[in-house]
Amino acid sequence: MKLIICGVGGRMGQALVAAARGLGHHVMAGVERKGVSVHGELTTLEKLDPRGADAVIDFTAPEASLEHARACAAAKVPIVIGTTGFSTAQRAELEKLSANALLVAPNMSVGVNVVIGLAAELARRLGDDFDVEILETHHSKKKDAPSGTAPWLAEEIASATGRGRADFRLAREGVIGERPRREIGVQTLRGGDVVGEHTVFFFGDGERVELSHRATSREQFARGAIRAAAWLQGKSPGLYDMRHVLGFAWRTHRVKNSVGPRYAEVNGEQLKVLDQAPWNGGHPTGETLALASAELLAVSDASKVVAVAQNYKKHAAEMGKPVPPEPLIFLKPSTALNAHLSPIVLPPESQEVHHEAEVAVVIGKTLKRASEDEVRAALFAVTCFNDVTARDIQKRETQHTRGKGLRHLRVRRAVHGHRARRAEPAGSGAGKRADPPRRQTPAT
Question: What is the domain extent for residue 56?
């Protein structure tokens, strides 16, 4: 990629230049304010001109980052922003600039993003019997407090447990009384050359759980930012964060509301309704639904299902057929998709129905003779599939239209974010009726 680094004179900027060159990318130029020295041979600009770049990476200050985001929006060049300390109004302006492909993340580390997901899950499972406190530590030169990551941790924990920003406590002094049970404390330490440390404490009666991440160099932040810039290539306009890049950002459902079928993002026990499909850059409309009572539909309105058959030896042997020289590709109609947890209707013309768990991939854009990189960029999400087959019909006929495509024979769960963080057995709990129910042998 051809990259421009904003804030190139700082420690993070220098780490980005070194990491980008080490990964084989071309740093076209750096942007730095007047009077700041930049080490090494690099074209340095005082004002960003993103034309000709594949992406811009910005680690500066909120005002400068907004200016750079505006320039990238005008030039339609993707931008990755790692700046922290945005005000509510500045964050709102960034959201308006998401007519361009824009990624904003207070922390580019893979480890931190994993910890944030784990912290939300721990908070959900431990419940209100455990007090939540967040402690963040950074070097003495860091200008904002708390760090961008600490409030992010607090927001994710609050979302997972039905709390809000009113429950956050950023400082304590004097006679403050007993700690409210649902309070989320966020405390700050500054000193020395600490790159970044974050610990979430869950204090219970007689026990304590701690979840920590400690960064020992800026290299992982730089590599994460470059990875984000590469991920943004070819993406639809929208506001993204590192969880989208790493693939455990969120889950989406397709739901029914007063207007009709809509896509919605899972946010704790709530569903945030989107204005369009997530692979088209859907944004929250402001409408929320309770996950427990929402009517969940087939997770995709896909025009077709592309399936692969006989792509492993034991299943081919089970079917009494030789292994084909290359996998057998066939299509299934979209009517074969069943709604989440709805009954699978046993077709009366079949006496032998099998079911098995499979992995399914949601392709987010139309492709034709695509390169490997284009294919990888188009893989929007991973989900689980309950593959139900009228096996006796499939064996009798040379093609799979009826055996694999009868109406309502297939159930899928929520779509998980790009390269999903976990898999849930599709159709688990659904009223499957098979006489008798059969699975493929465990070896397959």
Answer: 2-104+219-246
